[in-house]
Amino acid sequence: MDDSPALRISGLTRSFGGLPALAGVDLELRRGEVVGLLGPNGSGKTTLINVISGVYRPTAGRVEVMGHDATGSAPEGLVRLGLNRTFQTPRPFRTLTLRENVSVALRHGRNPGQSEDEILQLCGLGGKGNLLAESLNSSEQKRLDLARALATGPDVLLVDELAAGMRHDELDGAAELLRGLAAAGRALLVVEHLMGFVRQVTHRVVVLNAGAAIFAGSLEEASQDPRVVEVFLGA
Amino acid sequence: MLWLFALIAGILFGLYYALAALGLNLIFGVMRMVNLAHGDVIMLGGFAAVLLFDRLGINPLITVLLVIPPSLLVGFVAYYLLGTRVQRSRDPEMMSLVMFFGVSQVVEALAVIGFGNNEASITSAVFGSKPFSIAGQGVPGAWLVSAGVGLAALILLFVYLYHTGLGRATRAIMSNADEARAVGVNPDRISAITFGIGVGLAAIAGIFSLFMIGGTTPSEGVGLTVTAFAVIVIGGLGSPMGTFLGGIVFGLALMFTQTYAPVWSGFAPFAILLVIMLVRPTGLMGRSVRSV
pTM for this one? Predict the structure, then answer.
């Protein structure tokens, strides 16, 4: 495993109307590593993903992708640097087929050396390439969202609640897929509420509360950390 | 057999109106901008054809090929000069109305200075003086050529949108511009190309407005924009293929009323527009243009 961080964020801060949604978050992610991003609703997980992925500009702080300063870069610029993400609520190109959805990403991203059908197959959508994206159910739309992100050839992938809404029998396959992506050298930051899934997929976790990182370490350590227990259980 | 003539003429004029509206709808579909100067570009296309025919004897069909490169260039530059400002405003649709209304007035004023206020035209005999027979009905050659170019433009646009990488990226932006950026698409580059194509289609439509509408004057841009806007609202805002249907409906409504009740011919197409807005506000093939 390469020791230099694929993603490094330092002092990342984002305020909305003077209210801090992120308050100086530091985080490093290495190639081949899957880090879980945990926290109660409203703790800033999706805001952090949105700031890293260029949806929001940070109020302060720095984002580095593969050693390049990517602070405040637009999403299309981040794709070129090797970072992409999936969305909690996927928004596929509804009037395009699945194959066309992936094709657009293949053409405009960094070619990962795979075909549209190979990527769809990898994400459990094999044989559905000619369907319109609007015909998919929510779980399939999440898979398509992942397929589209992978088609841009990212070194760093931010995964926002992929497992939410998936059937029980789909979770093992999704976990295996994410582990496989990390084993192939990608760095993954995974936001997830399903602890069983987090345990299956992640190497370590970072816990956010009120926009600040309050814990970094293994999931087992997190479950015994009084700050984390208090945040989740209000104890 | 008046009805048969009205039907044939309606379809031919419908294909022309689809051509006249195609660029306006393409630009709206990708950029959510209402180009109120669209009709003025059509008008300029007409003047370009007249100038090239009068001065150099160039056939209007050759002019179709000649106007494409400068139109693409003008559209490309206009997008970066004006369109990007519109796109970055808080309300691009309203901003585009104001911005391109201004452009329309400027173009019209410049056209008056450059070409004068007289009507310019080319004899329709340039496409043959004898009418062609379709299902026993005599149809001017100029109508057939205009409709044929309209149909060819529709087919080429379909091939571009559905069978090329740039076209797929264009449709991706039409579907969701933010998501398109998230997979690496540069929306400004695609929008500039699209604006160029839209201007090119308008300029080509202008060449044939000389034969379908009859001559051109600097002040006709506003009326052409209104007609094109009616066609795309009938067919569906943001739906290039809906433009085909909108054009046909508009052409048939116009020709049937001109045949059976000419006094109402200026009323019927727009009455249909109002009915469609009440019954199906998204147009015949359109989708909601604002996501909730």
Answer: 0.89
